[in-house]
Write a structure and sequence with these properties.
α2 runs parallel beside α5 and α2 runs parallel beside α10. This protein has 376 residues and is of the alpha/beta class. The strands form 4 sheets. The protein has a 7-stranded mixed beta sheet with strand order 6-5-14-15-16-13-17.
Length: 376
C-alpha cells in the first residue's frame, strides 16, 4: 500500500496481550493510526517464563525495540530434554541463531516482564483499558466495534488479538470453542537459591516421564527460575485446584532435586490451569478484519511457540500491508504466509509424546551421545 494510504488508515486492535501489543507497534511504524482496546483494567501476565526465539528477537530489532526486551532477559544457547531421573535424551542449540545479519540468540523472559516491555514501547494513550468487546459488525471496508462500557468505535482495519476465547473469532469466523487437551499445567517462579543446584546456566531443560513433563527455565537476570509441571488430567475446569500432596504424587519418580523444589513451593503462588487450544480454523480474515495470535491459532505450550507465533503474526501483517495494494489483499496475503506455519505448529504441539517419541517431534535433532545413552 502507498504511504499516504497507510497514514490514512485507522486501525483498532482488540486485546493488549503479546500479539496485540506487537501488532500495535509494528502497524504504528507504518504511519497508521492505531488504538488498542483491552478489557482488563490493568494488563498483567501471570504464570512463568517463556523463550523468545531468534526470529522473534529479530523482529524486535527491526522495530527498534530489541534493547527494551533484551535487558529483561537471559540469552540462552541450547535446550535439553532429559528423562525423569536426568539421563540425556537430546541436547540441541536453539535453531535460527545464525539466520540473521546479526547473531541472535533465544532469550528467556518472565511473562510479566515481557508484556510490560512490549507495552512500554507504545506511545502514551494508544492503549485503552476497561474496554470489553461486546459486538463487532463487519461492513466490508470498515467495521464497527461496540464495547460493554457503551463506547462505539469505527475502524478501517480491526485486528482480533483477543485470545483463545476471542469474541472477534466467535462472532465473525468460527463458533467452535476451545478444546481441552487432557492436561493440567502448574506454573511457578522460584528463587534460584532454592533450585538445589539445578540452575547452573541460562539453558532450558525439560524432564519427561510418567505422563508428565517438567520445564525448568532459568531467569538468572532475576535470580529466579520458571518451573512448569504439565501432567495428564481428566478435569477440564479452567482453574483446577491442586494440593501440595497431589503435586508431590505427580513428581514421584523424578530427580529428587525436582521433588525438593516442589516440597518448597508456596501453593498460593502456583498458577494452576487446564490446558486448552483450538482446532485450526479455515479463514482468519474478511476484507477489513483479521485474527492474530491465540485468537487465530491458539496452540498447546509443548513447542513453546504461542507467544513467538503472535509476534511473527504481527510482523507478517505489517509486511503484508506494505506489499499488497489494499487492506483486503494484505489480509489475504497475511493469512497465506502465516497459516500453513501455524497449522503445523498447532499439529505438532498436540502430539502427546514420551521420551521414546522425541525424535518424532524434533526430527533429526537427537544427538549421537543421546542416542547412545538411550540404547544402554
Amino acid at each position: 500500500m502507498k504511504t499516504s494510504e497507510l497514514t490514512d488508515l485507522n486501525i483498532a486492535v482488540v486485546g493488549a496481550g503479546y500479539g496485540g501489543a506487537a501488532a500495535a507497534k509494528a502497524l504504528s511504524l507504518l504511519g497508521a493510526t492505531v488504538d488498542v482496546y483491552e478489557q482488563a483494567s490493568q494488563v498483567r501476565e501471570v504464570g512463568a517464563g517463556i523463550g523468545l526465539r531468534p526470529s522473534t528477537m529479530d523482529r524486535f530489532r527491526q522495530w527498534g525495540t530489541f534493547d527494551a526486551i533484551a535487558k529483561v532477559t537471559s540469552p540462552s544457547d541450547y535446550f535439553e530434554i532429559l528423562t525423569a531421573t536426568g539421563e540425556p535424551i537430546m541436547k540441541e542449540a536453539w535453531p535460527g541463531i545464525h539466520d540473521f545479519a546479526v547473531e541472535t540468540k533465544t532469550h528467556l523472559i518472565h511473562r510479566g516482564d515481557f508484556i510490560e516491555a512490549l507495552l512500554g514501547v507504545l506511545p502514551e494513550g494508544m492503549v485503552h483499558l476497561g474496554h470489553k468487546l461486546e459486538t463487532i459488525e463487519d461492513k466490508g471496508g470498515k467495521s464497527v466495534l461496540t464495547f460493554t462500557n457503551g463506547k462505539t468505535v469505527e475502524a478501517g482495519l480491526v485486528i482480533g488479538a483477543d485470545g483463545i476465547k476471542s469474541v472477534v473469532r466467535k462472532q465473525l469466523f468460527s463458533d467452535k470453542g476451545p478444546v481441552f487437551s487432557g492436561e493440567h499445567a502448574y506454573r511457578a517462579v522460584a528463587s534460584t537459591d532454592h533450585a538445589y543446584g539445578m540452575v547452573v546456566d541460562d539453558n532450558f531443560r525439560m524432564y519427561i516421564g510418567h505422563g508428565t513433563k517438567i520445564y525448568l527455565l532459568p531467569l538468572r537476570h532475576r535470580n529466579q527460575m520458571s518451573f512448569d509441571i504439565t501432567t495428564l488430567s481428566e478435569d477440564s475446569s479452567w482453574n483446577p485446584t491442586m494440593t501440595k500432596d497431589d503435586l508431590l504424587k505427580v513428581v514421584e519418580g523424578f530427580d529428587e532435586r525436582i521433588v525438593n523444589i516442589v516440597r518448597d513451593l508456596d501453593m498460593d503462588t502456583v498458577n494452576c490451569r487446564a490446558v486448552y487450544d483450538i482446532d485450526p480454523i479455515n479463514v482468519w480474515h474478511s476484507d477489513s478484519v483479521a485474527l492474530l495470535g491465540d485468537a487465530a491459532h491458539s496452540m498447546l505450550h509443548h513447542q513453546g511457540q504461542g507467544a513467538n507465533s503472535a509476534i511473527m503474526d504481527a510482523g507478517a501483517l505489517a509486511d503484508a500491508l506494505l506489499d499488497a495494494g489494499s487492506v483486503k489483499d494484505a489480509l489475504a496475503l497475511y493469512q497465506a504466509r502465516r497459516k500453513p506455519e501455524t497449522d503445523e505448529l498447532q499439529r505438532i504441539s498436540r502430539q502427546g509424546w514420551t521420551e521414546d517419541e522425541v525424535d518424532d517431534v524434533f526430527p533429526g535433532q537427537k544427538t549421537e551421545t543421546s542416542a547412545t545413552s538411550q540404547e544402554r
